[in-house]
Amino acid sequence: MCFSPEADFVSGAVISAVGVATLTKVERPREIALAAVPLALGLHLIVEGFVWLGLEGHADESTGELAANIYVLFAWVIAPILLPFAVWLVEPDRGRRRLMAPFVVMGAVVGLYLLWSMLTHGVTAHVVEQTIQYGGAGELAVPATALYAIAACVPPLLSSYAAIVVFGVLDALAVAVIGWAQADGLTSLWCLWAAVVSVLIYVQFVAWRRSSDGSDTDAPALVAPP
User: Would you list the DSSP string of 63-127?
Assistant: First the structure.
């Protein structure tokens, strides 16, 4: 697939639509953060479309720079905090929640470090092999990236819910493959992949609602959260 503003706008619109559908399935306050993930990731892709336009000279420089900063703010600061916390919130098993808790803290620490780095070093963006490479993570970029991946991927793997576990597995595999094949474009490529597989969050919400109305009582891994 050739990455481009058109690709980001189209995929972002589709994932955003799934995100809106996911939010309509919310019945409990603790579900809101997880339900917001697909919409947030879809809008994130749309923002990157404007980054592309700026880099290609189809938008003014200030628009491209603003889009890059918004994109990185979500990718580096909000996402590592939101993803593990959202999974932790809906987990009904206390033992699993205790196991997830250190990764929630890890995600918060990584997000705060990357926020500090953004404010200190600024954000850069340029095209590398048809993807966008973002810079500004500072001298600790490599360990911060490793801790980010762990914080984002491990809590879903510890979940009681099948679709969330699959989401974690696919994200972890994507980090490994993208990191090996094209480390420079990891932020852009992984965020695209995470947005695509976030459709599984919608699948999980559909399963919860079917379970809660009694139409899917034979799937213990997909029961509704308390």
Answer: HHHHHHHHHHIIIIIIHHHHHHHHHHHH---HHHHHHHHHHHHHHHHHHHHHHHHHHHH--EEEE
Total residues found in the chain within this entry: 226
Contact 210, 226 (CB under 8 A): no
CA–CA gap between residue 19 and residue 13 (Å, rounded): 10
Token representation of residue 83? 């993803």
| 134 phi and psi angles, rounded to 5 deg | -105, 135
Burial 16-30 (b: 16+ CB within 10 A, else e): bebbebbbebbeeee
Contact 114, 144 (CB under 8 A): yes
Could you tell me the residue ranges of all domains in the chain? 5-222
Give the E-state strand segments of the chain in sequence order.
124-128, 131-135
Q: What is the pLDDT along the chain (226 residues), one digit of tens a residue?
A: 346 788 889 888 989 999 999 999 999 999 999 999 999 989 998 999 999 999 888 888 889 899 999 999 998 999 999 999 999 999 999 999 999 999 999 999 999 999 999 999 889 888 877 788 888 888 888 899 889 989 999 999 999 998 899 988 988 887 777 665 555 555 666 666 677 778 889 999 999 988 766 444 333 344 445 4
